[in-house]
Amino acid sequence: MYPMLYAFFDEAGALDRDAMRRQVEACLTQGAHGIAALGLATEVAKLSEAERRQVMDWVCSDVAGRCPVALTIFGNSVAQQVAMAKAAAAAGADWLILQPPPVKGLPEIEYVRFFGAVAEQIDLPIAIQNAPDYIGIGLSAAGLFELNRQHPNVCLLKGEGPALTIQRMIAETEGRLTVFNGRGGLELPDNLRAGCAGLVPAPDCFDRQIRIYELMRSGKAEDEAAAEALYREILPTITFVMQSIETLLCYGKRIAALRLGLTVHDRAPALQPSDFGLACARRYAEALGPLP
């Protein structure tokens, strides 16, 4: 379970150093198996290149080798992604997640070539972010298989889809890729049954999700039943925040902030919370309790 960090900003609109450190420490204290950053939950598209590099340095420095770090690489060109990937490696990342370039509608082979051109210049293990429902671009199992065949360091997949889709992808790629799903932890038990190595959820209720993962790993029927019961407890929270990426960034971040004792300052453009939505977020956060 690799919680994908939120980007916390201060009143002036800059990245909040103390809040970002607090988030990392809470994740580690609760037993996160790894830390991820600079994905959709980190609002990577709103960050400047300098800010992305800053987040890389902060996260790797704060983790200080206590668990693996996965950093998402955002860039419009091969050159931009290679530069950011090398910066991530220098900061201390253990593996990378490549987002597709923001050009939709191309033949799949063009995306395979793009990812391959980045991968051949990087020594770290690489995951492909396959999130067609969120970013409008995704590779087929055949495309991923070919990418791995040509570039063996492309050996992971960061999926964003239903457990049924993920299970089929795992089968069709013949186990060549280590697969993590996202979607805030929806269908967590079934994702693990489908063959996922883990998930990359947001930090809202990651402490419960880590416990679910550990229970599911034991192989004991009573632990699996306990994992299902725990999943049922957090499912309303996940459903509330995962209506859209905008909802996640508005309300999911606020639930995490309430649990962490932090204040949210949005960076525009951003969905603004309603009074009703804030009341819902407070109710969910109170049910989950504070994060030490």
Shape estimate: globular
What's the order of the H and E elements? HEHEHEHEHHEHEHEHHHH
CATH topology: TIM Barrel
Uncertain regions: pLDDT < 50 for 5+ in a row? Answer: none
Give a description of the structure.
The chain has a single domain, classed as Aldolase class I (TIM Barrel, Alpha-Beta Barrel), CATH 3.20.20. Helices cover 51% and strands 10% of the residues. The chain is built from twelve helices and seven strands. It has a seven-stranded parallel β-sheet. The relative contact order is 0.13. The model has no long low-confidence stretch (mean pLDDT 97).
Write the layout of secondary structure elements.
Layout: H1 17-29, E1 35-37, H2 49-63, E2 69-73, H3 78-91, E3 95-98, H4 108-119, E4 126-130, H5 132-135, H6 141-150, E5 154-159, H7 163-172, E6 178-181, H8 188-194, E7 198-199, H9 206-217, H10 221-241, H11 245-260, H12 275-288
Parallel strand pairs: 1-2, 2-3, 3-4, 4-5, 5-6, 6-7
Helix pairs in contact: 1-2, 2-3, 3-4, 4-6, 7-8, 9-10, 11-12
GO molecular function: 4-hydroxy-tetrahydrodipicolinate synthase activity
Protein name: Dihydrodipicolinate synthase family protein
Family: Belongs to the DapA family.
Which features would summarize this protein structure in a list?
4-hydroxy-tetrahydrodipicolinate synthase activity; 292 residues; TIM Barrel; 7 strands; alpha/beta; seven-stranded parallel β-sheet
Task: Describe the structure in brief.
The protein has 12 helices and 7 strands.
